[in-house]
Design goal:
Layout lengths: L1 H21 L6 H18 L7 H25 L28 H24 L6 H4 L6 H34 L3 H21 L1
Helix pairs in contact: 1-2, 1-7, 2-3, 2-4, 3-4, 4-6, 4-7, 6-7
Length: 205
């Protein structure tokens, strides 16, 4: 069942990545790269043998999350196009030409890049939790004793908190996008990634 749900999660994740690629414009290349790499990590985890171990994929995705956040910070400071909003969003409300940072800015405008970066972290961590690599049992808690067991429990608690926070932010952004009648593409991208994370999390239960 775990493997089946892992495969199922690839479908919405791929849909979300397609939305990100379809909404590409100057200043958002890092989002496209991050989306493609994330799907590649999921596919690698679902179809063995792995090209890279789960922990290494987590490191790659975590680094990409840092890059996404850093690019957003630089673009925000310089006022560059694409500085706000989720991957695929065009402005504070997801519509072309809307000014970011104005009063009443949409959830996509305020939290889009946070959602993208957090999604990379969560997906990477879930990939570690679902990994069947030799030696990975230490991280997931199987066969752990003493201090190792405490590390595994802490990892699961942190992962649960990240996943819950991500899904809450997803629901908030989707609801806000529907209420504002924002462009469909960023809303669908956000919803698809939320579904992918929910399915991955269910596979670990």
């Amino acid at each position: 069942m775990t493997d089946l749900l892992g495969l199922a999660a690839i479908v919405p994740a791929s849909a979300g990545a397609c939305c990100t690629v379809g909404a590409w414009r100057p200043g958002r290349a890092v989002d496209v790269v991050a989306a493609v790499v994330m799907v590649a990590a999921m596919v690698d985890g679902a179809f063995g043998p792995r090209v890279l171990p789960g922990v290494l994929w987590f490191v790659v995705l975590a680094l990409l999350a840092v890059v996404v956040a850093a690019v957003h910070r630089v673009q925000s400071a310089s006022g560059a196009p694409g500085a706000s909003g989720a991957p695929g969003a065009s402005g504070s409300d997801g519509r072309p030409g809307s000014a970011p940072g104005i009063r009443g800015a949409s959830a996509h405008g305020r939290f889009g890049r946070l959602h993208a970066a957090l999604g990379l972290l969560v997906m990477g961590a879930l990939g570690v939790g679902m990994a069947h690599d030799p030696g990975m049992t230490g991280m997931t808690g199987v066969g752990m004793h003493g201090h190792g067991g405490a590390v595994a429990v802490t990892w699961q608690v942190v992962l649960g908190g990240l996943t819950t926070g991500y899904l809450w932010l997803t629901a908030h952004m989707v609801r806000d996008g529907i209420r504002r009648r924002a462009r469909a593409l960023p809303v669908v991208e956000t919803l698809a990634m939320g579904i992918a994370v929910a399915v991955m999390a269910a596979a670990m239960v």
